[in-house]
Specification:
It contains eight helices and eight strands, in the order αααβααββαβββαββα. It has 297 residues and is α+β, with helices and mostly antiparallel strands. It starts with 7 loop residues before the first helix and ends in a 9-residue tail after the last helix.
């Protein structure tokens, strides 16, 4: 799994594996002591073992102990591997929906306890079905992998990117308020829009629609995700390849002018083209945003 913060399910599995290892070794040691006492009791009035026989017996017991230890360690490694696979999407290598749900619970608990900002971004590949229908499923798989890689490489290491299901991705942005999350979403949209990755000798244009919202201290997981999903639906209804956000009351649009972006081969040129507008929009957006319900003590 990527380094996207601790995962409660993984920690529980590792702790269980370590406990199983400790219990297994303890049981083996208890069994060995019991057998040793029985042998000692049965021979307490007999002749002691010859030095060579005692040495051989000790070597056998040491070998048995080492073998048991190796078996338990291997079982613990297998448990950790199975846990990692259970939390990872096999196609993209991103955390899957189960891992996202665990991380979302953890982040919301921190938000409620410490009143720290947390934003959620839902990202959907536009017209994904056409890639499968027109070019075949291998192309569709390639588009999913490339989009996942673009998201992961554009975001911060502290951000949590997961495959939410189908062609949809979910991104948790810790220590990020709504205004900054909207700008991050716009940068992601732009990075995907100008990438045009190549597969089987053909370049493909990929665009994404995104919905953004910020958590409040009173949010449950369902309400938090529901707001981001409503913003994503608004973005898709508005024509796709854009960002909408939910400010706690309404879904609103945030779209920079893409005119001419399709003709730019260099993503750096595209970023320079909209850089000033991003800064201006951020300043205006910060001034316009209403106070989020439930914010504060």
């Amino acid at each position: 799994m990527p380094a996207n913060g601790p995962n409660l399910f993984m920690l529980l599995v590792v702790a269980t594996a370590q406990a199983a290892l400790a219990v297994g070794l303890g049981l083996w040691l208890a069994s060995w002591l019991s057998r040793w006492r029985e042998r000692s009791s049965s021979k307490c009035f007999s002749q002691p073992d010859a030095p060579g026989e005692l040495s051989l017996r000790l070597e056998q017991l040491e070998a048995e102990y080492a073998h048991a230890q190796r078996q338990l360690l291997e079982q613990a490694r297998q448990l950790e591997s199975v846990a990692a696979e259970a939390l990872t999407d096999g196609l993209t290598g991103l955390p899957n929906r189960r891992a996202f749900d665990d991380e979302l619970d953890r982040c919301l608990a921190l938000t409620r306890r410490y009143d720290r900002p947390l934003s959620l971004l839902l990202c959907d590949i536009d017209h994904f079905k056409k890639f499968n229908d027109r070019y075949g499923h291998p192309t569709g798989d390639f588009v999913l992998r490339e989009t996942a890689q673009l998201l992961r490489s554009t975001l911060r290491p502290s951000d949590f990117v997961a495959r939410f299901g189908g062609e949809e991705f979910a991104i948790l942005l810790p220590e990020t308020g709504l205004a900054d999350a909207i700008i991050a979403a716009e940068k992601l949209r732009l990075a995907v829009c100008v990438a045009r990755p190549e597969f089987d000798g053909q370049k493909f244009q990929i665009t994404v629609s995104q919905g953004v919202t910020q958590a409040t201290r009173n949010d449950g997981t369902a309400a938090f995700v529901r707001r981001a999903d409503a913003a994503l639906y608004a973005a898709k209804s508005a024509g796709r390849n854009c960002v909408h956000y939910h400010d706690g009351e309404l879904c609103r649009a945030m779209r920079l002018d893409d005119q001419g972006l399709s003709s730019l081969d260099n993503p750096a040129d595209a970023l320079a083209l909209v850089g000033d507008e991003i800064r201006q929009r951020l300043a205006a957006l910060t001034a316009e945003l209403p106070s989020l319900p439930g914010k504060g003590g």
